[in-house]
Amino acid sequence: MANWIDLYRSKLTTPEQAVSVVESGDWIDYGWCVNTPRVLDAALAKRYEELEDVKVRGGILFEKPAVMQVPDTARHFIWNSWHMSGVERKMIADGTTFFGPMRYSELPRFYRENVDPIKAAFFQVSPMDAHGYFTFGPSASHLAAMCKRCQYIFVEVNPKMPRCLGGVDNAIHISQISGIVENEADMWELGGGGEPTEVDKAVANLIVPQIPNGACLQLGIGGMPNAVGAMIAQSDLKDLGVHTEMYVDAFVDIAAAGKITGRNKALDAGRQVYAFGAGTQKLYDYLNDNPQCMSAPVDYTNDVRVVAQLDNFISINNVIELDLFGQVGAETAGTRQISGAGGQLDFVMGAYLSKGGKSFLCCSSAMKGKDGVLRSRIRPLMSPGGIVTDTRANVQYLVTEYGMVNLKGTSTWQRAERIISIAHPDFRDELIREAEALGIWRRSNK
Predict the structure, then answer these.
(1) Ranges assigned E (strand) in 363-442
(2) CB 407 within 8 Å of CB 399
(3) Which residues pair with 286 in a beta bridge?
(4) Is the Cβ–Cβ distance between 341 and 332 less than 8 Å?
(5) Positive or negative: CA dihedral 259, 260, 263, 264
(6) Would you name the residues annotated as active-site residues?
(7) I want to staple 245 with a disulfide (CB 3.0 to 4.6 A). Which of 22, 166, 279, 343 is the partner?
(8) Rounded CA gap, 70 and 75, in Å?
(9) pLDDT band at 294 (very low <50, low <70, confident <90, very high)
(10) How does pLDDT run across 58-96, given as a tens digit for each residue?
(11) Does residue 237 sit in helix, strand or coil?
(12) What are the two backbone dihedrals, phi and then psi, of residue 346, each rounded to the nearest 5 degrees?
């Protein structure tokens, strides 16, 4: 049997030696979310004076990378994000950060067929096992496909990174790695969003009764999905399954309450399947070496054809705005990039194709701006420059604190009437007038 320990020692290097492969004009990939590198990022930033136009790619940052804090940043480094966090929203304003539109399920194929050649990948991994493998931690996502496109692969081995089990493309072997550095930084933590608001609770109260025993769950990130998760944990539901893009703390709570068995899943029975995860230490401890949890590439977790095979699939996600035609935006506020398309459309489509499946898109009916003025999230038309994440043909259930409506099988006037019925009361008369002007109002619902 090969002596993987000796090979490991032979590949140990310094961060400075690892990043020496980078040249001006190169494309460099960072792991994303909790796999974003730390010491390699810091070492690359120190070389800024000798580098120009290095294009770095990643996403869902917890803090601003060192390469994006150097003087005259845009001359030396450009950040390219597959999905923006709050950190990246601020970075985009200074001209150093750009968004890569995608449907998340397609991301591994992007790497196989579409992206420019990558000079090097830098990312964090869990410690090596007895067979020479490092798991990608909770971020199988697209990393295996990314590695196959790289000239060099350098990893940061972090003993605090959970060892996340899977089945395929959830780990990398030491023979594939160009060099190893070590890092003992604490895991980045993502809070659960605090206590649910009254609006969150109202939305959750509408959705949870729609979930049958034996359902398979996908929860997005944010207050409303977390409120639904908390209510599920306290409910009488049983034998639930999990097949999701992002694994969040709510799933740990539902599992702790004994609600998750996965015994009714047609695929991966008994296992909670996810593409990436982020949360509190509670979540990382739960995922570590847990055979019930299956870390999988996103072209499996988010494949509409896979989701469609899971009966009673329940998808719950947040949105930012919607219009009277039923178009939904979940990634921008006007032209300002807020997050990304992610896998929302994947699950909206997959849930509807599932036997007994339901897709719920949730938002508060209105919000107060920084000026204190209340504004409706339901608009006559999408805000100028607003990006449509879910087309009007794909949307099933829309939910606000004022109700739940199903848009499937409806004409334009029925859609307008149903959508206005869940708008904030202060804006309904105005929305009726706008619907009349748009030619999609047939009669008053007063």
Answers:
(1) 366-368, 374-376, 378-379, 397-400, 403-406
(2) no
(3) none
(4) no
(5) positive
(6) 245
(7) 343
(8) 10
(9) very high
(10) 999 999 999 999 999 999 999 999 999 999 999 988 889
(11) coil
(12) -55, -45
